[in-house]
Amino acid sequence: MSMNESLQIRTFKKVGHIEVICGSMFSGKTEELIRRIRRAEIAKQRVKVFKPKIDNRYSEFSIVSHNEQSYPSEVVEKAEDILEKSFDAEVIGIDEAQFFDNELVEVCQTLADTGKRVIVAGLDQDYKAKPFEPMPQLLAVAEYITKTLAVCVVCGAPANRTHRVTEDTDRVVVGGENIYEARCRLHHIVKE
Fold it and tell me: Is the pTM above the cut of 0.90?
């Protein structure tokens, strides 16, 4: 066998994938999304970032972390809008995924199937510590998963729950420190 025959070079089609960053509020999800997007830009990759229209807490046209890091984004009303707006991107970032419906899962699958890197950040649990759709479905189909933890405001332990400090019982209430706190399992209290 010659040297050329023993050294086989394998070439792969450009394979896309889905990365999910999940955790409680104040755990650094958006911060991690921004870090990955900026690294993709350094690598000269074409990037597009999206956020749901409902999330206008800190900026109308940027994703913004609680520690005030920001990155320009496009606002979309529904998940399918991401498909038509990201055809020329190599890397797609999606923040606050829990504010989209389950159609986001199919959108992310379609983008990854066409060779794109899809990075999705969102809450994996609602304020009652129940799975927050569409995150469980995204976690099931993702190639890479990062679970971020915050710090419990009561005891300082690692926190993976989002505690609502107001009396509102709607599942979706957009807000920040004025409405939510990071809590550990022990100190998370659900008001019924």
Answer: no
